[in-house]
Amino acid sequence: MSPQPKARDRDPPRRRRFRPRLVFLVLREILRALSVPARLWFYLLRRRHWRAEAASLLEEAGDPRRLAEGNEEARARIRGALGGRRPGRIFLSCGERSGEAQACRLVKTLRAEGADFEISAFGGKNLAKLGVRVEADLVDRAVMGLSAVLAEIPFFLDVVGRFLEILEKDPPDLVVLIDNPGLHLVLAEEAKRRGLPVLYYVCPQYWAWGPWRMARFRRAVDAAIAVLPFEPPFFRKGGIPTGYAGHPLAAESAGAERSPVPSDSGDRRILALLPGSRRKDIDRHLVPMLRVFLEFRRKHPECGARIPQSDAERRVSVADRVRTFLEAEGADPSLCEVVHADPGETLRSCRLALVKSGTTTIQTALAGVPFVLVFKLEHRREKWFASRGLSVPWIGAPNLILGREAFPEHCFLEEEGWERVLASLESLWEDGEAREGRIRDLAEVRARLKGEGADRLLASWILLP
Predict the structure, then answer these.
(1) Are 445 and 398 in contact (CB under 8 A)?
(2) What is the set of domains in the chain, with CATH numbers?
C-alpha cells in the first residue's frame, strides 16, 4: 500500500493561491506601520484638541440614555446590513481564550433561542466541543510581543488565505470578530470588500491614543459592541454605531459574595499585590511592590501580602522570586503568600490592593477592594509617551468610567515614585472618609459595568421576528 500523502502535499498552503492578494496586504500593513511616526507627529500638534474632546466624551460615560441610543443605532445598522433577513451562516473569529469564552457564550445563547445557524470559526478547542466548525486554531497560537508575532507570520498568512477562500467559496451572512485588532481588522476589510456585514466585539483601545485609527475601523466594520461604558461615545464620535453590553468580568462576578470588611484568619489584614501576569510586567513591578509592602509593614505590622497568579507555572516562578527577595531582606517569607488563583477570587479576602494598570483594575473594582494603581516606566521614551501621547487623562479604566481620578494613579520613571505610592496606600488603609469614599466609588463602577451581555445583545439584533 502506498503511503498516504502528507497534509501539506494534499492541501498546499492557501497563501500560495492567494499570493498576490496576501503580498498586497503585507505591503499595506508595512506601509501603515511606517506611517505611524508621521501620524503621531500630526496628532501631537493637535493633542490639546484631542484631549479636550476626550474629556468631553468621558462626561457621557455611563449615561443610560446615551447607551440606549447607541444600542439602537448599532442594532439598526446591523439589521440594515443584513437586509432585514436572519443570517443563515455566521463566521466567528477569536484569537485568545478570553475571546473564545465570549464566542462560546454567543453560540450557546443562539442555540438556546432556537436559532438554526451554520457557524464556522477561527477559534480553539472549546468552540470545537460545541460542534462549531473550527477552520483554524488561533487560541493555541496566541502570541505576545513583536518577535513572537514575526515568527508566526507564515501561520497568520495561511489563516488570512483560508479566510479569503471561505469568502470566495462559502461566504457567511455575518462576520463577528472578537478583540485582536491586529489580525481582525485585516479580516474585516476583506469581508467588507465583498459587501458582507461585519460586527466587532471588544473594541480596540483607540480612545487611549492615536484617534486617527478610528477612520480605518469605521471603514472596516458596520457596528461594534463595547465592554466599557465610556467607549461608545468615542466610537460613535468616530462614526461607528456602538452598543454597550457590559463587561464580561462583571457577569462572571455577579454571583460572588464579598464580606463588607475583608480579612484573613486571625488579626492579619491583607494587602493584595498585582504586578501583572506577563513576565515583562512582573520584572518591572514585583520587587518594587515587595519593597513597598515591607516599608508599609513597619507602620502596619498586622499587614500581610498576597499575590495571585492564575498560571500554575508562573506562580511557582513568582513564589521563588518572592522568597528569595524576602530572605535577602531578612524578612519572613510567610508574610507574602503567592497563590494559584484568579485575581478576582483572591481579592475578595483583601483589604487593599496595589495594582499594575490593566484588566486587573477592573477585577479589583468588581471585587470591591480600594486600590492604588501603578505603572513603572523603563525608558524616557515611555515617559514622554505617557505624558504627551495619551488622549485620555487617566490610564485606569475605573477612573475613566467615573470620569474623575477616584483611585490614585502613579506612572513614573524614577525610583522615588514608589514613595508616593506608599503614601497613597497609607491614605486608604485605615477606616475613614477617604476609604469609605473609595468604597462608594467602587459600587458606582460595578453598577456601570453591568449590562445585558454581548451574547444576548447580539441575539436580539439578529434574531429577526
Answers:
(1) yes
(2) 15-246+451-462 (3.40.50.80), 269-449 (3.40.50.2000)
